[in-house]
Amino acid sequence: MIADLDDTLKQLLIQRTPLDPVQVDINFEVPDREWSAGLAKPTLNLYLYDIRENLELRETHWETELQEGRGVGHRHAPVRIDLAYLITAWTRAIEDEHRLLWQALSTCCRYPLLPAELLQGGLKGQQRPVRLSAARGDGALKDPADFWAALDNQPKPSVNLVVTLELDTEMTTTAPPVTEVRVSVDSFERAARQRKGALIEEEALPGSGTAARNGEKRCRRPGVQGEEVVRNHRPPEVNPH
């Protein structure tokens, strides 16, 4: 997929800047000192230096799709991945270098979404448009000086380009389609009675005076046939005399 993205970006610069590939080379090599010493003609370098998930575009839902003869399939939404490129121009004259870099920046800013007709290989199957973001200040490359020092090369003005692709994790499940739903009112009432766990109806026994003194009561409980007598034994009265 990354190789397809490289080819797509190359076609974007060639066709939409436009750039003549005979006059200007476009490559994706590591721009270290050894590489730059072997350049024979003006070159635009797009160096892929960082890959990470775009957390702002993260989707956690499952997508539903009908599968003929197999029921209903559920696919996890693709992961959105940011690929960060560092674009630099390499020419003998500094003014040509600046002009070439500005042309590349102008093209990238003009297309916030990669044109569908330029997509190469596996990028043609992307469900969501391929997003471009150029020259933003929140790139992963925080200190260009350290970057060029690590490559043992002279510092160069550069354009940070971030391309957002989707990565299909192929997490799928299949289940038979739901064709009928049944709702029972009785089941809801029964569940409510079970959760309540209390007496539904309570009434005093005949001879309420005697029942009250003996702590008796008659009640109906859920699931119990007939009535139940409950006696609460009161402590004996103590004569203080």
Written account of the structure:
This protein folds into two domains: 2-173; 195-241, no CATH class. Helix content is 26%, strand content 28%. The protein contains six helices and eleven strands. The protein has helices at 2-16, 33-37, 94-110, 144-150, 185-196, 208-214; strands at residues 25-27, 43-53, 62-67, 71-76, 79-90, 131-134, 159-167, 172-175, 201-203, 216-220, 228-231. The strands form three sheets. A five-stranded mixed sheet has the order 1-2-5-7-6, with helices on one face. The chain has a three-stranded antiparallel sheet with strand order 3-4-8, with no helix packed on it. Strand 1 (25-27), helix 2 (33-37) and strand 2 (43-53) form a beta-alpha-beta unit. The chain is elongated. Mean pLDDT is 80; it is low at 198-205.
Instruction: Give unreliable regions as ranges.
Output: 198-205
Element string (H = helix, E = strand): HEHEEEEHEHEEHEHEE
> Residue share in helices?
25-40%
- Count, helices: 6
How many domains, as an integer? 2
> Which class of secondary structure composition applies to the elements?
alpha+beta
**Radius of gyration from CA coordinates:** 38 Å
Instruction: Estimate what percentage of residues fall within beta strands.
Output: 25-35%
> Numbering strands along the chain, what is their spatial order in the largest sheet?
1-2-5-7-6
Number of strands: 11
User: What is the average per-residue confidence, as pLDDT, rounded to a whole number?
Assistant: 80
Rounded to the nearest angstrom, the distance between the terminal CA atoms is: 101 Å
Largest sheet features: 5 strands, mixed
Shape: elongated
